Amino acid sequence: MLRSLAVFLLTLRVLAAQNTLPDADQKLARQICQEMVESRTGYTTGSTTPLVEALAARFKAAGFPAADIFVGGAAPKKANLVVRYRGSGTRKPILLLAHLDVVEALREDWTMDPFVFSEKDGYFYGRGTADDKAQASIWVANLIKFKREGFRPSRDIIVALTADEEGGGPFNGVDWLLKNHRELIDAEFALNEGARGMLINGKRVSNEIGLAEKGFSNFRFEVRNKGGHSARPVPDNAIYHLAAALSRLATHSFPMELTDVTRVYFRQLAKVETGQLAIDLAQLAEGNQAAMEKIAATSAPLNAMLRTTCVATLLEGGHAENALPQLAAANINCRILPTDTIANVLSVLKQVAGDKVTVTVTKDEGSSPASPLRPDVLKAFERLTDIMWPGVIAVPSMAVGGSDSRYLRVLGIPSYGAQGLFIDRDDVRAHGRDERMLVRSYYEGQKFLYELVKSLSSEQ
Ligand SMILES: [Zn+2]
């Protein structure tokens, strides 16, 4: 009995060990992750440059030739790093992308210092541990491992760690590289953030591969009025006109639409869920309107997958408490389905706003097409998911937020959200307080990405 228990425990240990790389590789990745988290790369107050320089030195020390390491960016504080690991050149390169900048974090908002990497209760804590320094540190550690092992890929493997993904402004590293040094990151396809593994009640259920994302745009609702003394009010009031337009917007819904990606997504999600929800999701995936209405009404995240959404996010108006307002305005943030257009959204918003309100586009980050369902990438992703986490299903997905993949997709370089890092569905802390990453998931993600890149770049 004791002996069989010992054998059983040993088997468990072996199985668990198979899901991570050897200790030395884990240690290296953790060390790099710590270095990244403790480097202040907040996109408004920080800089990616010191971190990029330290990483470049690390690659040099690991034996990468200086000619294969590029440091440069759109501004002195916005450096990007591109490192090329040479293969036989049989096939076009593969690009491994991650951003080094992070959303700002204030010490007083957190229960610990956001820029001190710490490990507690099975989690790594610190700004960037989920978004996006886990993946960035894994790319670095794994590329160094390939080099150490003398792995000879069939294609160059390029790691690009970039600035200002969160900023999204004029210093975006991927945008800058594509415009100024496209040859450095030109690839057959890219792997990036933009999809995650999903934990429900601590249990792994699905591993997403991101194929598309919604477009980001801002519109301005504006009403101007000649104003006057507030002691003699008139019905023609800028604030009331705006308020009425916003009330109509609150109850307006854009039509629901399934895309090639979301249809597969909902079909796969139906396999993960149970009971009535599973039935509804399966019917939704077949385009059943009643099921779509029902799901959209009960789940904000799933509603966002089904339609373009627009929501009021900022408000301004009036100039004195005793004057009729001469201006009332609101910012409307829209997330547009890849199959929808900004021109269509503008015309819908004009209708909703009515003739008292002018509607203009104030920000258009542009839409990007979905990446094709490449069989080589999808098969490798599914096979590895199956080997490492039996029972967990691979799910093609569309991100409702944005990522740098859009710059690549519009230029015809397919980009896939692939991480193999699992995050609690009901406790997403990216951009928020006490951001964290499950330690076990980090190391398993390291192995997953190691095997995925290896299988996509081995001689066939
Ligand atoms: Zn990110």
Describe the structure.
The structure is a single chain. By secondary structure, this protein is α/β, with parallel strands linked by helices. It folds into 2 domains: 2-212 and 369-457, Zn peptidases (Aminopeptidase, 3-Layer(aba) Sandwich); 215-364, Alpha-Beta Plaits (2-Layer Sandwich), CATH 3.30.70. 39% of the residues lie in helices and 23% in strands. It is built from 15 helices and 19 strands. The strands form 5 sheets. A 6-stranded mixed sheet has the order 1-2-6-3-7-17. Helix 4 (133-149) crosses helix 15, helix 8 (260-272) packs antiparallel against helix 9 and helix 9 (275-285) packs across helix 10 (289-298). It starts with a helix and ends with a helix. The model has no long low-confidence stretch (mean pLDDT 94). The structure holds zinc ion.
